[in-house]
Amino acid sequence: MKIAEVSPEIIPYAKTGGLADVVGTLPLYLEKAGHEVSIFMPFYKSVKNSGIDIKLLDTTFDIPIGDTEHTVTLWKSIHHSSKNIVIYFIQRDEYFDRDSLYGTEFGDYQDNAERFIFFSRAVIEAIKRLVLPIDIIHCHDWQTALIPIYLKTLFAEDEKLSSIKTVLTIHNLAYQGMFRQEEMKLTGLDMSLFNCKNLEHWNNINFLKGGIVFADIVTTVSKKYAEEIRTIEFGCGLEGVIEEHEEKLYGIINGVDYTEWSPDKDDLISHQFSIEDIKGKAQCKKHLQNELDLPQTEAPLLGMISRLAEQKGVDLLIVIMDELMKRDLQLVILGIGDEKYHQMLKEFTPKYSEKLSVNIMFDNKMAHQIEAGADIFLMPSKYEPCGLNQMYSLKYGTIPIVRETGGLADTIIDANDENLKNRTATGFTMKGYFAAELLHAIDRALDLYKLETPWKALRENAMKQDWSWEKSTNQYIELFKSILK
What is the pLDDT, as a whole number, of residue 340? Predict the structure, then answer.
């Protein structure tokens, strides 16, 4: 098959979250399975500054945005981990030559609708003009959700494009690309599509809703999340639309790239280790304590690497912090997010300097060191479409504490008595989103940590888990084949 992956962000060129990791890695496994893959993304300032070898193509063309023609310039490069996967960059500096991808600290860019209308339309025209023989366009999130709509409306009679099938993956339903009705005229789509069955949502245009309606297949990034988004609690207002199109909805968990996230080959940690030779983990703990000016005690070290936002359970942690600090433990937090949480967490630091290290930043090396050096990992998310850190933690023998939601529910098995006895447990789970439940889950983990033999067995079982991309890639391939038939 010939597959085009289309995404607003891809590692290492541009990243705000896990979406970039997925689209930077999945194509490698599709290629490994024998398929031809190309990738499309915007030509951001971060791409210009990345230092990668980029070639300007001599193909330029104009596309209409409302009543105005806008010129598209194309660049291309080869994927940094492949010799064959071509990445095409869509350039228009007035849209993409900016410091951030989607907005500033004051909010989203006011022209985001126009920016990604342009990007979606340009991708289709680029495929046509470069004469790329594409079978499947795999779209990611609302920024690309117009592509399935365009293919089945404006380009439905185009013989070069009409046979292309589309798959839309929802990485987080909370972000939908909802804009004022007036933006509809910029799309070039007929106003008859502005209705409650297609693109209209509460008198706005909703890009993601339209993509769900028009895509041949819709996937989410975990099986559990595919079930959850049909409910009022997790459906973000689109549960009715999703229920209506449930026959084409599938959940496929994201995979882990174990070439980057595996303690036996991780160059970013102080001591490599494995399930057969675990001694290096204790050395990683001492190194992390030393780096963060924490006393080198034997007390359990808890880690949290997260966007500091309510979705991630930071609010719950703040509520229990004073009580938690009465326990014999240490806690390391790494992340950035909402300013109010930055300030709240910083206020605890002087009070608990011997036990708490709050790092308001993102640092990839420190993230690896926390995964390797911590004993327990906190991920009590209100909702989590997939989550990756809990899967990284398993491989590093860092026992996750998670809420049973989305990908967390799909990947972590609770360490209750029965699961501990039959050696299936991999972590600790909480059902409700309450501070008291989080504290109880932590206390359960601390109690087991004191018992050397059961804790060792739990850690070994966690490290045996395999969430590599091969299984997920095969599921995507089967879906792609099914719609081509």
Answer: 93
**Strand pairing category for 301-305 and 330-335:** parallel
pLDDT at 341: 94
Count the neighbouring beta carbons within 10 Å of the beta carbon of residue 75: 16
Q: Are residues 166 and 220 in the same domain?
A: yes
202 and 342: one domain?
no
pLDDT digits (tens, 9 = 90+) for 364-384: 899 999 999 999 999 999 999
Place of tokens 């081509």: 484
Does 178 lie in the same domain as 192? Answer: yes
Residue 55 falls inside a structural domain:
yes
Same domain, 41 and 61: yes
Residue 197 and residue 169 in contact, taking contact as beta carbons nearer than 8 Å: no
What is the total count of domains within the chain? 2
For residue 124, which of 134, 115, 114 has the smallest C-alpha distance? 134
Q: Is 355 annotated as a binding residue?
A: no
Instruction: Let me know: does 162 contact 137? Beta carbons within 8 Å.
Output: no
Count how many Cα atoms sit within 13 Å of the Cα of residue 303 in the half-sphere of its side chain: 28
Residue 381 included in any domain: yes
| Residue 270 placed within a domain | no
CA 259 to chain centre: 18
Q: Helical H runs in 40-140?
A: 45-48, 93-96, 112-129
Contact 89, 102 (CB under 8 A): no
Pair of tokens at residue 85? 């996967």
Closest-CA residue to 456 (of 425, 411, 430):
425
CB-based burial label for 198 (10 Å; 0-12, 13-18, 19+): buried
Cα 32 vs. chain centroid, distance in angstroms?
22
How confident is the prediction for the chain on average, in pLDDT? 96
Tell me how far apart the alpha carbons of residues 446 and 440 are, in angstroms, rounded to a whole number: 10
437, 475: one domain: no
Alpha helices, DSSP H only, in 374-484? 389-395, 406-411, 417-421, 435-449, 452-464, 469-484
Pairing of the two strands 103-104 and 107-108: antiparallel
Judge contact between 32 and 51, C-beta under 8 A: no
pTM: 0.91
Tell me the C-alpha distance between 240 and 236, whole Å.
10
Using DSSP, state whether 447 is helix, strand or coil.
helix
CATH number where 367 lies? 3.40.50.2000
What backbone torsions phi and psi does residue 76 show, to the nearest 5 degrees? Answer: -145, 155
**Inside any domain, residue 266:** no
| Same domain (yes/no): 178, 206 | yes
What pLDDT is recorded for position 51?
83
Asked if 220 and 243 sit in the same domain, the reply is yes
Per-residue pLDDT tens over the stretch 433-465: 999 999 999 999 999 999 999 999 999 999 999
Question: What residues make up the domain containing 420?
Answer: 279-466
User: Are the C-beta atoms of 143 and 209 separated by less than 8 Å?
Assistant: no
